[in-house]
Structure formats: structure tokens, C-alpha cells
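=== RUN LOG ===
request id: a7f3
mode: sequence -> structure
chains: 1
length: 163
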Amino acid sequence: MSNLCFDYFLGVFKRMLPTDNCLPKDRKHAQKVLNGLGLGYEKIHACKNNCMLFYKEHETLDTCPIRNESRFKMTSQNRTTKIPQKVMRYLPLKPRLQRLYMSMHTATDMRWHKEKQVDDDGCSILQMGRHEKSSIERSPSLLLILEMLDWDLPLTDSIYMGF
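=== RESULT ===
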């Protein structure tokens, strides 16, 4: 999506919301908010044939060593900045996980399978309601898969899965 298109959609959404909303007015303001929250991204140049990334030890190269393609688009000689052929945006996982664990409520939800739902055998217990159980019983393909895995449909409200 182009920057102009993103700005246009932000404007449409901003007009749809109440007047006292906190939606950023354009892409630059939205990017500042995300960077302030630690949810930015890292731009990594890529070969136009998707065969390699110009990252770490290849960051200083101007041509792809695999297909011998130029890293940058051909532009006029007067241009001082080089435009990459293709850019990958890397969203680092670590800051996102750190933000999830900052809240006590989401942190306990993230640790739920490890701390709460383990029985004496070390198996995780997934609780199922009657609606889910009845939908499994009505699904012939899921019953076939469970039969192939030698799983019996539980008579209680729990399914045991060993990890």
C-alpha cells in the first residue's frame, strides 16, 4: 500500500470516528506512535529475485553474489540517495513479547498453558465446552483424523494432549 493510500484510509477512518478520537492524522504520526511504543520495524534490502538479503555480512555489498543483480534501482546520476530494488520490513519479536509481559493480566494469560493447565502426568488439559464437543462429533473429517491418531473422544469435558 502506498503512503498516499494509507494517509487516505487514515483520513476516512478518522472522519468515521467521533471527533475526540486519538487516531493519528497521517502515516508519519502513526509511525511515531508505533516507534514510541517500541513496535517499529527494521528495513532490510533484498535482492529483486528474492534469493538473498543484504543483511549482516552482506550489508555492504552493492550486487547480489548469487545472481549478480544490482541492489539499487537505476536512477539519474545526479541523485545522491540510492533506492533499493526491494525492501523487507522486519518486525522484531522481542520488543513485542516484552510489551505483552508488561501487563500483569496478559502475562498471566501468556503463561496459562505452562502453569495452570497441567495434570499429574505432565499432559496439558484443554477444556472444551459442550458446543465444541458437539461440533467435533458432527465433523466426519475431524473424527477420521482423531481415529488415525488413536485419540478417543473424551467422555468428560477435557481432552488430554501430551507435550
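=== NOTES ===
Residues 3-16 form the longest helix (14 residues).
The first strand starts at residue 42 and ends at 46.
=== END ===
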